[in-house]
Amino acid sequence: MHKNQPRKVRLQVDDVAYVYEGSTRTQALDGLTLAVHDNEFLAVVGPVGCGKTTFVRIVAGFLTPTRGTVLCDGSPVRAPGAERGYVFQEDAVFPWMTVQDNLEFGLRAKGATPTERAAVAAELIRLIGLQGYERAYPGELSAGMSKMVEVARVLATDPSILLMDEPFGSLDAQTRGQMQDELHRLWEKRLKTVVLVTHDVEEAICLADRVLVFSPRPGRVKAEVAVPLPRPRPLELRLSPEFSAIKRRIWAELGLAEAS
Amino acid sequence: MVAALRSIRVRRGLVGLLALLALYGLAAQIASGRLPTRVSLPMHDIEGVELLPTYSSLAEESVFLVQAGILLQGAAVSTGRVLAGLLLGSVVGIALGLAMGWAAGFEYALDPWVVLLRFTPALALLPLYVLWFGLGEAAKIGLIATAVAVVTLQGAYQGVRGIPGVYWDAAAALAAPRSLVLRRIVLPSALPQILASLRIAIALGWVTVIAAELIKPSMPSLGYLLALAGAYPRVPTIVIALATIALLVLVSDGLTLAAYRWVTRWMRRRHA
Amino acid sequence: MRSPGRRRVVLGCVSVGVLVCFYTLVSNVGRLVDAELLPEAFARLSRPDLLPPTQDIFKAVVSLVTGELPPMEGHHAHPSGHVSQLVEQHVTLQGALLVSVLRVLFGVAVGGPLGILTGFVLGWNRTADDYLHPIYVLLRSIPSLAFITYVMLWLGHGEAHLLIPIVYAVFTTVVIPTYHGVRDLAEVYVRAARSLGAGGRLLFARVILPAASPAVLSALRYSLIIAWMTTVGVEMLMGDDGIGHLLVGGGLWSSRLQIGVDPAVIIVGILALAAAGYVMDAAARIVSDRVTFWARRRRAW
User: Fold this and answer.
1) Radius of gyration of chain A (CA)
2) C164 & C270 share domain
3) Which of A62, A213, B33, C88 has the fewest CB atoms below 10 angstroms from its CB?
4) Is residue C233 part of a domain?
5) How far is CA A242 from the centre of its chain?
């Protein structure tokens, strides 16, 4: 999966800055520059308040940067759109729709025919292993299952890039582990460009090809750590020395450990 | 204050209000020659009615009302009634609500009566109270107190029931005596709900007092002023009375909201 | 509320039963015991024109429902002037209730959609909200009953001056919860839908509307009670019919509130009112629960 030749750039962020105006003026990001390549899994970690969420919201199109440009597939990002799928930390699955309707929603927005929608939805349900739950309502599913429905829902519109902001943040530790595995499996089957924002360093290393460490506020890219670990990455990988080495490096950048 | 003015929302809000006032003034001016001044009431027809009073007649009227003491006295009396009813009603309502929330038996026994009162509009009790307590203050204050009690009872009840189970368990694990649990756990936890219901209760109290004063007018009071102005009719007085009521309601609501925000400041989490 | 159970039903019935018995005893004290034997305070209580004996209440109910006066029975108390008058005017309990219920329904049918529409506009469009919100706050501070005399000057003494305050009351009750539903509750879903490429009608009909519906429906349910209160109020003030009118036996301009109002009629009216309100609220709750079944808490796995 790792190619040596330079790959197409899906997302280009140049010198982006963002300021929150409010009772106190907060410079969330300043001079942020990065690039995400095609089919790359990029993780972003950083201390609390470093602007990770602001960054990913800008890329999604929910916020407009006070300075700098964001290009997705060459065109500037102005508003949210289906080519940049977004998975939220909070529950964003539509509780008034069945699982099937949720999955079909993005396609409905695109104007696909009912048969097309049903076909894509059926495939995705198989992919996330929720056969039989098509007619179920999210309220009847567990938190983890519901989150997978959200991920699948985003995948249904075949976005160029998948943005995830602490998607498993509201899940308990055990479910998180399962979900990380699921996500990994999904990504391998349906290669996509992914930007994952997380505070969980292990999660970042398990899933990503590359980990960017943000500096504290105002946020910019402080360090870049490659993760050349082979895939698939089973749970035992977390105990390996290579894993720990990468972890130590990242922790050092975060100021949590001494670089060895 | 200056910082608030810099906020675009506040500026726009002021613009909206001013636009409304300007529009009204314009309408009143245009209408002043053209609207019919004759109104037919059930008993008789009246001449010389200004249906849309202009700002000048409103100003004149306000000066007269204030100087004659009618407006201020009326406002004081009505406000006094609301406060008295609020005090009485909330004490009873909160006490009962806390008791009902704490003890299931108490709740089950009292529930039918609470439900009955909840679906009885307070005003419907006015004839009964007047019959029992006469035409004095007691009936009106009792009415407001009843309305307030029903609302605050619900708030206190919800407040107690909403206390996370872990708090009760923690208190039990520390073998805390009942009075301590009440003072230090139940009351603070229930306070937001109680204050929220108090806000509703104040609005309800104002509605009730005005309605009661309209139905059973007694001098001086804002409701009486309104009724009298309606009977005469003197429209500028109606408008001024309405404006005064609105002002008093806004102020009392604002104060309660501020109290609510202050009390719940420990509850609001900062978003990361 | 704590879960229903036998203990709840039993205690509730016992409490009602005890109070009814106690009341019957106290209200009939004058008949059972010679007046001179009673202490002062009790003597006052035993006046049937303050505390109508239970059987009088029953008689009033029967009269008002059937529209007929009971046959005169020797030395038993005659039906009060109030009851006779109502029967003479062919006013029945159910008739009065129907009229009031119709007014309430009208108020909700007109004020509800208006309020929902306004709430949506204010919640969705920040600019409109910035400009219009203070105006709304100002207007809703005025109790809607207070408008009645003013409206009457414009529109005369028909039905309009009764209905407008009811519509207004419902309107002001519904706006804020709808506003909150659109602005706050729907926020994350709107963002998710936008990221899926949804916009315009799809966004509105399939996302915003359902997301806000629990808040809107609960507001509508609450507005029923408010509408009741306003209806009773306008009927007491200026109505010629309806249950409020029954309660006072006349309008503001006729001072019948002071003379001749039979407390039995009042109590009957109150009970009927409460029952009707309870039924309507229960119906609203059933409908709203059915529509927003999905808003129930997730089962913990």
Assistant:
1) 18
2) yes
3) B33
4) yes
5) 24
